[in-house]
Design a protein that fits this description.
By secondary structure, the protein is of the alpha+beta class. It contains 3 helices and 11 strands.
Length: 200
């Protein structure tokens, strides 16, 4: 009887422990990687860097043959704003925000007069721990709706990826039949670009 009682107590404790583990969100213990990634970019605050297309470029795509500059321009404890300048086009700003469950990437697109583009603030949230050097952002539902409303059905499976290493920052867009990458040289800061449109 004592042996049966002991076994029953063991299994009860095991079930309680298992339930506790299941109740914890899968990424609750992984916020360290998100924080480290965020802080790695934040250390570049105030600096700008030149980039080059390393995959997926083509003539007439709006990026090839133009000066590509990223500027880690605005930094707080929870949000980073990084304009991505393409030649004389200053319409794009990456917005990286810390959330309760990880990181969020949004693309803030503006017109020259500062007004919002009809396709703006699209992106997604991290869905896994990632690493201190790489995070992926699958497209979110809100962005899918916006893409469909504006005839961009090819973008509804977008996954954006950012990687930061000692010498390189990489911005990557992936979807079926599309793998676009720009790599920025972090060893050579460049002159600061103009203020991005709409962020005076």
């Amino acid at each position: 009887m004592a042996k049966t009682s002991t076994l029953r107590g063991y299994f009860t404790r095991a079930l309680v422990c298992s339930a506790a583990l299941i109740a914890v969100p899968s990424n609750a213990a992984n916020s360290v990687q998100h924080q480290q990634f965020f802080e790695s970019i934040a250390t570049l605050c105030g600096q700008a860097f030149a980039g080059k297309i390393t995959a997926g470029g083509s003539e007439g795509d709006g990026f090839s043959g133009k000066a590509l500059i990223m500027h880690v321009r605005e930094c707080s404890d929870t949000e980073l704003k990084v304009p991505f300048h393409v030649g004389e086009d200053h319409s794009r700003t990456w917005v990286i925000t810390q959330t309760d469950t990880g990181l969020r990437l949004k693309h803030d697109h503006r017109h020259k007069d500062g007004s919002e583009d009809k396709v703006t603030m699209y992106g997604g949230d991290t869905r896994d721990v990632g690493t201190a050097n790489m995070q992926s952002f699958p497209v979110d539902d809100e962005s899918i709706v916006n893409f469909k409303q504006n005839g961009l059905d090819q973008s509804v499976t977008n996954v954006w990826q950012m990687m930061i290493e000692a010498h390189t920052f990489t911005y990557r867009l992936m979807r079926e039949n599309r793998d676009f990458r720009v790599e920025f040289d972090l060893t050579k800061p460049v002159a600061l670009p103009p203020v991005p449109w709409g962020h005076e």
